Amino acid sequence: MTLRFVDVRAPRLDAARVLKTSPAAAKGTPRPRGAGLVARGVPVTPATVGDLVGRGDGLTPYGDDVLCGWLALNRAVGQATPAVDDAVRRALPRTTTLSATLLECALAGDVADAVGAYLRALATPAEPAARAALEAVGHSSGRGLAHGVDLARADLAERVAA
Prior knowledge:
The protein is mainly alpha-helical. Helices cover 53% and strands 0% of the residues. The chain is globular, with a radius of gyration of 14 Å. The model is unreliable at 23-36 (pLDDT under 50).
């Protein structure tokens, strides 16, 4: 048994609570210039994972950050994503070692503090401030993570509506 000093697990959330539209959805999620690889409203599927992993600048490419955010919300609401998980695992060699490690953590349900704080704040008055704090992480990583959470929220809303 491993004891942790810091809880890095995605917080458990009620899916119905987070389905309220993100305040950022109306104005769109900011993306780094030239990142045009993640269109707003395009769902994350096994087929689109290959278009994301390793795409974008930096040690943690923007597409990887988007996937980490998407995985975080799905883990937080207890939504299994086995097909996407398998596609991510197969694509890990296409990204940086650091980013592959962070994707593996996201697959396991582990999140950075700012992501966990944002997930806990979803659909509460604290959401805008938590989102701003998340978006301030790194050069573009925070925006990518928030974009992934937005995409996961849209996916969850579609599943509930169906």
